[in-house]
Automatic annotation (TrEMBL):
PROSITE patterns, per the entry: INTEGRASE
Biological processes annotated in GO: DNA integration
Organism this protein belongs to: Actinacidiphila oryziradicis
MF (Gene Ontology): nucleic acid binding
Protein name: Transposase family protein
Integrase catalytic domain sequence ranges: 1-99
Pfam family, one: rve
Domain of life: Bacteria
Length: 99
């Protein structure tokens, strides 16, 4: 994955949250796109704190992965959605308060 894709996705997420992302912690792996200067610069510009687990350790994901597995199973696989945007708003309620 290229760094510009990650930077673009992060910029889109910041815009979706109205630019108010100071002190958000962004946890990633050690992929080159996340260790790039461009990614570091956009994080600094928005006040985002970067976090990375140790190389070769899956423990940092051990707690969060079962949570998202349950969320996906209970929230998205149990019902039909009129649009993908509606599903996204339900899965990530902080991204939009409109129904």
């Amino acid at each position: 994955m290229r760094a510009d894709l990650v930077v673009g996705a992060l910029e889109a997420a910041v815009a979706a949250h109205g630019g108010d992302v100071a002190d958000v912690i962004f946890h990633t792996d050690h992929g080159t796109q996340h260790t790039s200067g461009a990614f570091a610069a956009v994080c600094r510009r928005h006040g985002i704190r970067r976090s990375m687990g140790r190389v070769g350790s899956s423990c940092d994901n051990a707690l969060v992965e079962p949570f998202f597995q349950g969320l996906k199973r209970e929230l998205t696989h149990q019902r039909r959605w009129a649009t993908a945007a509606r599903r996204c708003r339900t899965s990530h309620p902080s991204s939009s308060n409109s129904g």
